[in-house]
Amino acid sequence: MASSDPQPDIRKRKADHLALVASGEVDFREKGTLLDDVTLVHHALPEMHFDEVDLSTELFGKRLRAPVLVAGMTGGTPEAAAINRDLARAAEALGLGFGVGSQRAMALHPDLAWTYQVREVAPTTLIFANIGMVQARRMATAEVRNLVDAVGADALCVHLNPAMELVQPGGDRDFRGGVETMGRLSRELGVPVIAKETGAGISRAMGKMLKDAGVAGIDVSGAGGTSWVGVETRRAAAAVGQESARTLGEEFWDWGIPTAASVALNADLGLPIIATGGLRSGTDVARAIALGAIAGGLAAPVLKAQWAKGYEGALRFLESVVASLKAAVFLCGCKTPSELRKAPKVMGPRLAAWVQEVK
């Protein structure tokens, strides 16, 4: 695909994204995930051995040992390649899922494909490819499938990021044809297509539209974790002549639907719902599952663990997530994540208001 977008600019953007996310300086400022508005109900007599808890979950044709994903973050630079390999290797060791970051850089510059390729270290892992809706709209289905095949992915996340693009210097402005693109890929691609937001959540009305378009699942990527508007606002602050983008970004830094609300609003659509956006622990994953998610994905905290202590840091962190998730399932008197989705829970007033008013 021809483009005037020079490779060095893409590499710098990817490097900027990593540094900003790892710094924690671009988290949502006032709006949270509302996962703290979910209280799981303690079961004092579980009537089972802790070892009977089985977290295994079927998702998009593969069986995970726990319903936990390393959400897509990066690719396109040598540093990103090392991060992807460490995180994918950790996912393989624990039987979790793994997503690569946006493959836009790879689509523009195929020689960057190696920075996304992790199958060598994750031969059995559920891997998600990743491309933006705007880029996918411009590509033939066969071109998109080439991106999927090049990384040996089992499914494709098509990410939706209008808020981020409005602030990004040189970002996209034309989001027409999104529903048609989702439908075309769902019909023609040959692997599951997941609609994935990027930190602003999926409303119920949008969830219905995506289901009607034929997507295989929804990754809500709600508000409350990393603000990708914030990421681009900080990048704009370092660029000359981007005063209007900085102003817009500051105003919309906290824009979006909280993760817990987005999960709850879409839980009964009959599609697998993946909860990402601000999850920080196994307890967060458990709360999301109790609201109806099939799995929870974590990004920034896994990246921070990898930056601090490499592969071992990422592995230890993910082990702690799985351990606390298993404990939460057990303490709710459940043996499986599917039982947890039916277990009693209490929603606080902020989350209840979202569900009642929007649904």
Computed Rg: 19 Å
Give the % helix. 40-55%
Return the CATH architecture. Answer: Alpha-Beta Barrel
Shape: globular
Features:
359 residues, alpha/beta, TIM Barrel, eight-stranded parallel beta barrel, two-stranded antiparallel sheet, 15 helices, 12 strands, 13% strand, globular
Provide a brief overview of the structure:
The protein is 47% helix and 13% strand.
Molecular structure report:
The chain has 359 residues and is α/β, with parallel strands linked by helices. It has a single domain (7-358), classed as Aldolase class I (TIM Barrel), CATH 3.20.20.70. The protein contains 15 helices and twelve strands. The strands form three sheets. It has an eight-stranded parallel β-barrel with strand order 4-5-6-7-8-9-10-11, surrounded by seven helices. A two-stranded antiparallel sheet has the order 1-12. It has a two-stranded antiparallel sheet with strand order 2-3. Helix 2 (78-94) links the parallel strand 4 and strand 5 (97-99). Helix 7 packs across helix 8. The longest helix is centred in the last third of the chain and has 32 residues, at 300-331. The N and C termini lie far apart (42 Å).
